[in-house]
């Protein structure tokens, strides 16, 4: 930056009789520092076909014209990286594992992107989900008291013969005691039919039900006694 400075001078002519005025302009140069903020422009390279920029200044994202399906990802231009169970340029083809590697011990069922194993009747799938193991046998049906007594019976020896005889006598005593109780219970029912409707039918009906239960117990004990006596007779014949 320059600024003009004006100055004037007076001079005399020859012989000292004339005065002359002289004007002179002088420019003084001054410097001033100015700071301005200017936008900075960046230039990025253009990506090659099949690539693009993604959250970066580099061309590091592949472009697939047809999108990848079934969970696949675009690995390079127009080529997908597929998940397990799928193949193809765009992961559009299912892999039939059952026809390629036979992964199951019994039967293989192919599914979309996977497979599952099925066992034949009488088997179940093991923990590895590939092999089969046989099912456990069903539980045995419950036995009746007479069958249980037959299964628990042991032929008496010379040391245990007296014990079986005492058991038979004990069962006989129980049968006699139950028969006596049954007679006492059945005694009030002699007046069951002649009584009026106002009397307590439900109470005596419950007595009758209890009596039938006592009869069942007597039949069961009698059956056990007969079975043991038959066994004792067989053992006696074998000893003779």
TrEMBL record:
SMART domains: EGF (SM00181), EGF_CA (SM00179). The keyword rRNA processing does not apply. It holds the Pfam family EMI. Residues 1-61 form the EMI domain. Gene3D superfamilies: Laminin (2.10.25.10). CDD domains: EGF_CA. Keywords: Calcium, Coiled coil, Disulfide bond, EGF-like domain, Repeat, Signal. Residues 130-165 are annotated as: Disordered. Disulfide bonds join 64-74, 82-91, 98-108. One of its GO terms (molecular function) is signaling receptor binding. PROSITE patterns: ASX_HYDROXYL, EGF_1, EGF_2, EGF_3, EGF_CA, EMI. One of its GO terms (cellular component) is cell surface. Residues 60-92, 94-133 form the EGF-like domain. This is Epidermal growth factor-like protein 7. The lineage of its organism: Eukaryota, Metazoa, Chordata, Craniata, Vertebrata.
């Amino acid at each position: 930056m320059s600024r003009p400075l004006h100055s004037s001078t007076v001079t005399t002519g020859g012989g000292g009789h004339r005065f002359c005025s002289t004007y002179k302009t002088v420019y003084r140069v001054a410097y001033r520092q100015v700071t301005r903020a200017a936008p900075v422009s960046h230039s990025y390279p253009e990506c090659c076909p099949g690539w693009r920029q993604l959250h970066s200044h580099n061309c590091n994202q592949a472009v697939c014209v047809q999108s990848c399906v079934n969970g696949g990802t675009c690995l390079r231009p127009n080529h997908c990286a597929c998940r397990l169970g799928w193949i193809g340029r765009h992961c559009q083809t299912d892999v039939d594992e059952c026809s390629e590697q036979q992964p199951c011990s019994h039967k293989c069922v192919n599914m979309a992107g996977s497979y599952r194993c099925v066992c034949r009747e009488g088997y179940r799938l093991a923990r590895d989900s590939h092999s089969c193991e046989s099912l456990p046998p069903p539980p045995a049906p419950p036995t009746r008291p007479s069958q249980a007594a037959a299964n628990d019976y042991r032929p008496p020896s010379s040391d245990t013969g007296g014990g079986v005889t005492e058991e038979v006598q004990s069962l006989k005593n129980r049968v006699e005691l139950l028969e006596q109780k049954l007679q006492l219970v059945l005694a009030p029912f002699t007046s069951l039919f002649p009584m009026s409707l106002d009397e307590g039918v439900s109470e005596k009906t419950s007595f009758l039900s209890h009596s039938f239960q006592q009869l069942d117990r007597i039949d069961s004990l009698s059956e056990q006694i007969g079975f043991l006596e038959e066994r004792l007779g067989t053992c006696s014949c074998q000893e003779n």
